């Protein structure tokens, strides 16, 4: 056990991400004391019951008092209000970070509230499951996943950035750094647009299900099943993602629609060569992902057959 | 070990599906002898090397000689030609089946070639992985998955249907029966349209990847990663699926595009309530799938973190 990276860490919002951070910090002794706050009383009670956080506070103000690191783990749309609330209670030299899936809008919403002497180092761990809430967290969530650190501006203190990087690496993540706009574009294509598409397809199936009496659910083999997992993610979080990463998401969806129309036309006109070439090309991407170590090559994701 | 369901089974085409059938039949002694044929010499050699089939033949004709059950395990677009080739060599009373993902077009392509006295009982096991080829098969592939039997017409011998059902149940599957057009519509929404959508999104990312220097691959968290798995499936198989289930696929894609446009508009206009309500609704479908036993509730599909 090495010395803690931060003596006092405050987690604001106690869902899957914060909960997993807590367990990952405890696993390696990365924080002296971890305080937590959640707006919902039920969440605070659950956190106390399962031992999530060393101390669960009754206000965000109490939680951030004396903290060396404050991590905002609330939906992107709520970041600004939380920042305004806690700002007067931050000690000088504190680092404020967050875990939001969109970075430009979080920076715009949070930065204006923070006093001088507070380091703002936004971050985004690319990890999650389709479950949410304090009980869904686990210490291994970030192991070998990426966390992207997005310093609010060029003037950000390099030492504050390096220390946050130490924390994330200690929690098992690989850390990269990029600017906010680039982050938002990359995430629009790897995550935000795919989520919206999955949501849409599941919604279409739901309409059809009413016609075909639950067969859609019963016969959901690979394709649709993977979509439903994506589409089961937290509705509040995703609403905020789309509203705050609007431009990049709409740009990627525009390209998507264009390509989809071309493939639909190939189907309609019976252009088998076009389809075959397209499908062959997409295989190489999958190979790239396996080589990049972001997934397993085991068939069907390494799942066994479901229990009957 | 009970008595075999069929004394002699012939598998035409030796990819993932046929290979898994062989190992599943062997697991329970469901077939006396299993012969196999694949058009490619390399595939036949691989099959012999790994002990796939009791006897690998040099022609489809040799493989079907004396068989009680012939299963066509070739791409949907190749079914008609294979049926024409083997038809003169089928013994009276034989059952011919297939494993194609589309049923109406297979029936149209195969049925005209089969002589009287041969029972044609098409089927479609809803199982697979993103891998293909003879070495990708395994005995458990069909455990607790659905196999849909689609008798070619109302005159199909009920005993031939019941026997094929026994085989699939013996291989671990749950068996249902429906007519060809209904099958094709249900599969368009649960499988065919989702696959085309995943292929499209992966193609769009590929375009962007050229701009952003492999970041798309590096940062592919949940959403996109699931799409790439789907989009890594066999190109020939999927080309044939879309060309042969054209009408149902295009109908579902039409609905999909309509819904996607509505969600894009909600993003553009900042209509958060619309997005939230939509995303909440899709969660219930996911719940239905878990309750129907077609997937696990374990986070992230029960996958652990990938090995570093």
Task: Characterize the structure shown.
The structure is a homodimer of 308-residue chains. By secondary structure, chain A is of the alpha/beta class. Chain A has two domains: 6-178, NAD(P)-binding Rossmann-like Domain (Rossmann fold, 3-Layer(aba) Sandwich), CATH 3.40.50.720; 182-297, 6-phosphogluconate dehydrogenase C-terminal fold, CATH 1.10.3660.10. Chain A has twelve helices and nine strands. A six-stranded parallel sheet of chain A has the order 3-2-1-4-5-6, sandwiched between helices. Chains A, B: This is prephenate dehydrogenase. Chains A, B: Pfam families: PDH_C, PDH_N. Chains A, B: Keywords: Amino-acid biosynthesis, Aromatic amino acid biosynthesis, NAD, Oxidoreductase, Tyrosine biosynthesis. Chains A, B: InterPro entries: 6-PGluconate_DH-like_C_sf, NAD(P)-bd_dom_sf, PDH_C, PDH_N, Preph/Arog_dehydrog, Prephen_DH.
